[in-house]
Protein 1
Amino acid sequence: ASSDFTAEDVEVSGGELSGFSGSGTDYSASFTPVENSTDEGVITVVRGAFRDAAGNINAERTSISLEVNTVPPDTTAPVLEIRADDEELTVGETATIRFTLSEAVSDFTAEDVAVSGGELSGFSGSGTEYSASFTPAENSTDEGVITVDRGSFGDAAGNTNANQTSISLEVNTVPPDTTAPVLEIRADDDELTVGETATIRFTLSEAVSDFTAEDVAVSG
């Protein structure tokens, strides 16, 4: 319990604190974020701000951060959704990417689409529906990312898309090494209590001569 913890001990950024109340060990207040903002709301009490009956001060700075987005949505702006028919691509696979707009536009083109981790081809469509084929880079585990920046296209009234829209695809086009030995690890008991032990069996897909206890990392 503390008798000297007050609203003045609380530092606030990204908004305002009001209605501070409480006593002893429990206090509360209301945080209102700044209007038209995406800045985090941060509430902090610094070290040495209050003390207990014996005179001991709080020894640590304590803080909490809140995500804030109080920017009103632009209801006049066209909205884009990007989807893929396959979001986990391996060797030889491609994905069909579909771009769906909330209203018809005439200036959305392949040049509006930024691509990393592969290539986009066969872009086509009109009005509110467009599509293209994504081919991941060879011998790669880098994500495939398809992005359309804000302000890339507009509707008949001249309103442009207000948000950046993106989709990420998992990629693994590294051919499997069929010559590498494979290890399987099993235990005769995988739920151990006081006094129990487990026998661990290491089974290799082919014989090797250099597998030793030093190759095994153990924790717990």
Note: The longest strand covers residues 118-136.
Protein 2
Amino acid sequence: SFGGVGSWTATLVGAYVPGIQPSVYPPGFGIKLPKGARVMLQMHYPKGSAGQTDQTQFRARFSRHPAPRQVFLDAVLNPSNMLDGPLVISPNVVKTFRQRLRIPFDASILSIAPHMHLIGTSTKLWIRTQRGDTIPLLKIPHWDFHWQMIYTFKKLLPVKAGDFVES
């Protein structure tokens, strides 16, 4: 189903959709898992899959580096970042929603992964710097639910605390 993971305290540490390659971070990067952390998987099964066997595997590789640069995953599309919410669409209505995520600390963007299930039709993402510059990140004019990929930049994209990711 298209629901949440069943926890308000869960921290996103990864995402996968059929057809993409596993997430592998550059040397020196990683996601910190606290001691005793439990990993929860959220699965979306298609209609007609009831009674079938799932062979999903979760594999983690622990860093050999003593202090890897920490990777944070954050969802731009969430209620706290909406500029024109709530995310409610009446039948037969086309509606555009805008999001703004303030970057809380100096960072580098490795990749972006748009995810809109069956409701989105298009998406654009950009960085708006504190100086007012606009840096385009992604433009998908015709969203395809079956082609949800993680788009990894060729070079790390540095951003400053106070910049915004906008859609």
Note: The first strand starts at residue 29 and ends at 30.
